[in-house]
Amino acid sequence: MDISVLQPDYYETFHCLAGACLDNCCRESWDIPLTKNEYMKLTGARRSKELEGRMREGIKRVRRGEKPSEYAHILIGPGRPCAMLGEDGLCLLQKEGGHEALGLICQSFPRANQRMLGKRVRSCSAGCEAVVELLWKKKEGIRFQNLPLRPNERNLRYGNREIPVEMEQTRPALRYFWEMEALCVGILQNRSYPLPVRVTMAAEVLDELGRLERSEDWEGMGAYLKATLAAPQLAQRAAHWEAKPRQSALALVTNVFFSFSLRGGSSREQALVQQVYQRLGIQLEDRMGEGEQAGLGVRYQLDRYLQGMDRLEQWLHGKEHLLENLMVNYYFQSLQPFDDLSMGIWENGIFFAALYSFLRFVLAGVMPEEGEPDWAAVRGAIVTIFRKFTHSAQLKQKMVSYLLSNGVQTLEQMDVLIKG
User: Fold this and answer.
1) DSSP per residue over 300-356, as a string?
2) Is the separation of the CB atoms in 171 and 217 below 8 Å?
3) How many C-beta atoms lie closer than 10 Å to residue 87's C-beta?
4) How many domains does the chain have?
């Protein structure tokens, strides 16, 4: 039985905004799977006639390729909110049956309650407006707490993700997870250096750990972490990376590719990406041809892109804690560098770096050419990015695959992407 939990210090202050939420997660493009038990509980209980009709419309069985974790799906798509969502922005299912009537994903989001190597870990996703507000207000940065669980919490479901201690036998790098977390979070929160440099230095650690993992040098991995935690030599590494020049065209084109995932999404996602293109001077054009010659071409004005990035840097002055908190929170929440266990340490690091780069790219496109940006627009863009890209294993793998197949895979190339 768990007796303690590791969590960020904002966790206890989170509460759902319910009907007051502007970025309601029940209106977005989501893939919400239901287990067989959840499906039976949802459909087997007595409901009002209105709710029964809505559930028939909004919950569909998986008839082919059924998995234990995907017996059915709640249908939410572009222009199609959840059928159980009331006009007041509240869930009719929860109104009638209480919180326990919901499936685990709907019960917990944006909370992530996980068990990592025998330790309870919980946090919240930045794919939620209320969480972004909490991170925005934490100017001193996130602190982490190791707290005793209250008696009524000890037997609660901890979520649908667990990495058990036994997995250390098949993935020996997991033995050093806590040291990796302490080192990388410490680097990301070290405000002696600009955040892009910190992200690159954290990526540098993951690059070396990935090399040691591929060579199965577990003793070397332990020695590297021990030495680096004791004497990280950040000043020398920071000076090295700060001296590297920006190569913005590569970052721009790469992030335009990532943005294609928003073009086919909800109306809000499409509006966001169109705004980014317009403000950063990006145009897409159809290319005739076959094979690699077919598809979309990208035309861009590098000077307008750089102006947008400069506007973002100006707006972030005195607000640098926002992106720091977002990336530290995601690193912790996703159990980096083991977010996707099908990928190696470095491949997970590649996604982390790419996410940071794409976040800055989109926010640069939200900055108006004159005046201050609307905070609600900035917050909405952040919510969209984290909701879209950090809750889809398929999108993560797609981004990493694109980078690897296009030769953007070395630490130096990640630095180019990170600098934007």
Assistant:
1) E-HHHHHHHHHHHHHHHTT-THHHHHHHHHHHHHTTTT-SSTTS-HHHHHHHHHHHH
2) no
3) 7
4) 2
pTM, two decimal places? 0.91
Residue 98 lies in a domain: yes
Of 85, 108, 131, the residue at which a domain comes to its end is 108
Contact status, residue 293 vs residue 287, Cβ threshold 8 Å: yes
* Strands (DSSP E) found in 154-220: 162-163
What lies within 8 Å, CB to CB, of 1 at 6+ separation is 154, 155
| Cβ-defined contacts of 87-96 (< 8 Å, 24+) | 88/19, 89/18, 89/19, 89/20, 89/21, 89/24, 89/26, 90/18, 90/19, 91/26, 92/50, 92/51, 92/54, 93/42, 93/47, 93/51, 93/55, 96/47, 96/48, 96/51
Give pLDDT tens digits for 180-237: 999 999 999 999 999 999 999 999 999 999 999 999 999 999 999 999 999 888 999 9
- How far apart are alpha carbons 369 and 392 in whole angstroms? 33
Which tokens hold the place of 346?
């470095």
355: containing domain: 248-419
Last residue of a domain, one of 62, 93, 108: 108
Residues 6+ apart with CB under 8 A from 133: 379
User: Which amino acid does the sequence have at 416?
Assistant: V
> What integer pLDDT is reported at residue 351 of this predicted model?
97
| SS3 state of residue 185 | helix
Name 413's bridge partners.
Answer: none
C-alpha 187/C-alpha 146 separation (Å) is: 20
How far is it, in rounded angstroms, from Cα 360 to Cα 382? 10
- Find out whether 371 and 249 touch, Cβ atoms under 8 Å: no
